[in-house]
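User: Could you check the structure of this?
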Amino acid sequence: MIYRPAKHKLWDTWLYLHEGTYYLYYLVADKASWEGVGLATSPDGVHFSEVGVVIEKKPDANWLGTGSVWKAEDFATSGRFLCNFSEWRNGRPEESSPSDGRQTIFFAESTDLVKWTRIEGVEFVQDERWYQPQGRWDCIYTIPRPGGGRYGYWTATPKDGPGVGFGETADGVNWTALPPPKIEWGHAGPAEGCEAGAVEEIDGRYYLMLGCYGHYDNRVNGMWSFVADAPEGPFKATKHNHALLTSRTRANSYFARFFPTADGMLVNHHSIPREGGGEVAMAPLKRAVVDEHGTLRLGWWEGNEALKGAEVEPLAEFDMATGIVVEGTLGGTPGVSGDASGQLRVNAVDGNHGTLFAIRSGGVDIQPIDVDGWGVMLADDSIELGVGFGNEVRFRLMVRWNMAELYVNDLLAQCYSLPPMEKGKVEARGGTWSDVTSARAWRMSLG
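Assistant: Sure, the predicted structure tokens are below.
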């Protein structure tokens, strides 16, 4: 929603913050396969400027895969940053999904986070004691290891079923694989396939954001939340908000990664438009929010206030290419059932269709509608946040490039891909609340 490069198409994203500059790395996806790592930089985490491709796949590789960036253990003397990426080779570069061959993890180094040099002679391959030799082996995400060095988690194909890779390093470059952490899937059972987004320690526990594709937990593609008491697991499906960033009918967003900053733990991911609705885009950063029960949710990041440009009438028409931020409060007395509800619509100005966001107690229902409709008959997507909203609800709705994000009481309810439209208009009404109050709107400042 906030950034897509002019010269390339992006897929997975990861960030690094150094001396006030946000470095956004992304998987370049210009063709059917992925051919490199791109970079954009920002002074505020909102307004990004394109740098270009900083790592290219070698000619004999079928495709290049995602990684992450961290400081080398000898950073104090060398000033080196490290990153990892993968390449799949099988001698037929024209194939984007080869049936044979092998995926291998490689490393690169930099002293300025812009110019990257491959570290030759170092390859990290599957440990065949625990992992399939021709399985996935991709995108290490690292965290500090007690006593020095780092632990890493990555996308892998364990021999005993769906899971993630796990290992350690003393210097950041030479890695040793360890047995994959056990995953306790809970009532949903194992996913058809999964990818390791990231693991971070928050308040003494280790939170795994796991990308599951296919049909899992009655939803389609997205990120789920697991938690462990130790780095090596076992990781258990969280009791609440297990479906961290996913949807019921289509892939609206994917591959969330943790993004540590001095101001707290953030999360980044990309947003996916509907077919024919435009290109994948970097989504606004979110704050990782862990409540007193240990539940991980995604919340509003205060830095996104920089998205607000010129103030406009709350219900004014707006260009999808420019985008809009609408905020307001739903207040009054909940309905008899206690399920308070309010409704927001994003309508196409030049057509007869729109999308309805119905805010109810503890969740949100989303449904495509015609412009005369308000009530939700059968929701295209339903989200249960597992928190009560009370008698007063604050909402933030952001829309750009046919992508929408709705926050309720500063918690992300959903990222949702709207039907294609050039101009839109936001409408709101209180439902069983008395009214919508304090509504304000701003054009996005992204240019």
